[in-house]
Amino acid sequence: MSQIYERVALIGLGLIASSIAHAARRAGVAGEIVGYARSAETRGIAREIELCDRITETMQDAVEGADLVILCVPVGVMGDVAKEIAPHLADGATVSDVGSTKRAVIAAVQPHMPGHIHFIPAHPVAGTEQSGPRSGFETLFDNRWCLLTPLPDTSDAKLETFTQFWRALGSNVDFMDPDHHDLVLAVTSHAPHLIAYTMVGVADDLSRVTDSEVVKYSAAGFRDFTRIAASDPTMWRDVFLTNKDATLEILGRFTEELFALQRAIRTGDGEHLHDYFTRTRAIRRGVIEAGQDTDAPDFGRGGPN
Amino acid sequence: MSQIYERVALIGLGLIASSIAHAARRAGVAGEIVGYARSAETRGIAREIELCDRITETMQDAVEGADLVILCVPVGVMGDVAKEIAPHLADGATVSDVGSTKRAVIAAVQPHMPGHIHFIPAHPVAGTEQSGPRSGFETLFDNRWCLLTPLPDTSDAKLETFTQFWRALGSNVDFMDPDHHDLVLAVTSHAPHLIAYTMVGVADDLSRVTDSEVVKYSAAGFRDFTRIAASDPTMWRDVFLTNKDATLEILGRFTEELFALQRAIRTGDGEHLHDYFTRTRAIRRGVIEAGQDTDAPDFGRGGPN
């Protein structure tokens, strides 16, 4: 793969930024990778593990001369970061982000962008429950989807270049309207996370069942929820606060459906339960056929192979 | 390991029974392993893969002469199976089961057991989303917990022997009161399964988001739910119908908590959300420290190592 950008600046050095650094290096698409994180500790770790070619002490230094700047910070601070870097951006640079919600990020970032800048909002749909500069790895985006929600006046040439960049990191790329993005992700990510957080919180809070029991007998389903509920609290707080409407809509549908199943349990309607549980199997097959999950039983956790 | 039982009969040849067969063979604890399944197709597969030493055409033939009989059928048919095998059980045999609920199984099975039989209810807390005779594997129970809920008049000697059997299969063994078992499992298994089924059902049923979108962007959390929601529909229907009270109690607590978090989202109470999400991380650490899950990010799905 040949170079796509001369200098890529990563603002924020968590799981996604550090994975971008590794994947961009693997692909050879960036002449130089520059990184900045607000926390001195994070910058220190990033230098120690040589995550980027250069770690700067200020945000300004990081973005100067970069032809691609990617904001990899929690959604709630995107606006402040955009405002701070705006005067220092190189002429004609592309600015992007990796936020899990798109309408709020656009509203926060776009007003600060000078006319010469090309802002292309993006969301790589990939991750793990880990966070921080050590958590990234070069294969994170392989065969996952990166959703771009370009604005109406985005230059075709800049968009094409940026699309090539994400493909070079291993991603498939799709384009979507920001509102639709937020609704789709409310279903496939935001609501499931809130539900997992809730279930783990309930288990932690029962007086008649001890935490030790919850932990010991977690292999029967619960442990999958604990993985999701171990995700970064700041990131997820911001996701819910900035995708309020879509998340609440899906949670409303969820509660309605849950009540219907609870009623079926209470009234002993086995047929309703069986039909429902049969239907949901098909979605799993789709996920595996689309290459979005392993088909090894139990995610291959010490399984047959 | 030396032989513990001369002949072990497995009634039903799904995931758990086939894993018992493999693990018992690995441990050399059974002189002979005999299997029976109601479906001719399942019996045919079991013979083809040489799952047991012998597959019988009738339930009666399977249990005759067995000093251990394990009922590995859905909870809803345990009573019928117990009734059918009762007259054919060997004198002094131990009968057990692997049902995910215990109070209902005891109520259904115990009345049919002749006085010379030792009925020891059991629940190996392990599994995958797969089912059928091909899905078993010898390591399924390694370092998982098998919960025994012995009845008040159970013979100490028979209980000790049966405990040794489960330990030989790789399990840790704990003892519990049946009602408490049903409550603990409602938290760690039954409620999480119903919630996962519900979430997958909702996603499948939205008119504004296509199934193809749900599948493509599932890597952001949803795909973990699809694994759980791919579990055997008959088994799970029976679990909910036979652990109604505890499941509904936990779902009630879950809904209460979910409403509180929804309110926090609606009112923009970021502190409440952040505190809640921070607390749930600790439980994940507990699960990993107890050896009940892998610490590889994202369950090791194509991760860094």
TrEMBL record, chains A, B:
Pathway membership: Amino-acid biosynthesis; L-tyrosine biosynthesis; (4-hydroxyphenyl)pyruvate from prephenate (NAD(+) route): step 1/1
UniProt key word Nucleotide-binding: no
PROSITE patterns assigned: PDH_ADH
Catalytic activity: prephenate + NAD(+) = 3-(4-hydroxyphenyl)pyruvate + CO2 + NADH
Domain Prephenate/arogenate dehydrogenase: 6-295
Listed GO MF terms: NAD+ binding; prephenate dehydrogenase (NAD+) activity; prephenate dehydrogenase (NADP+) activity
Keyword field: Amino-acid biosynthesis, Aromatic amino acid biosynthesis, NAD, Oxidoreductase, Tyrosine biosynthesis
Class of this enzyme: oxidoreductase
GO-annotated biological processes: tyrosine biosynthetic process
Assigned EC number: 1.3.1.12
InterPro entries assigned to the protein according to its UniProt record, in alphabetical order: 6-PGluconate_DH-like_C_sf, NAD(P)-bd_dom_sf, PDH_C, PDH_N, Preph/Arog_dehydrog, Prephen_DH
Cytoplasm as UniProt keyword: no
NCBIfam families per the UniProt record, alphabetical: PRK07502.1 (NF005694)
Similarity-based family: Belongs to the prephenate/arogenate dehydrogenase family.
Protein name: prephenate dehydrogenase
Taxonomic path: Bacteria, Pseudomonadati, Pseudomonadota, Alphaproteobacteria, Rhodobacterales
Name of encoding gene: tyrC
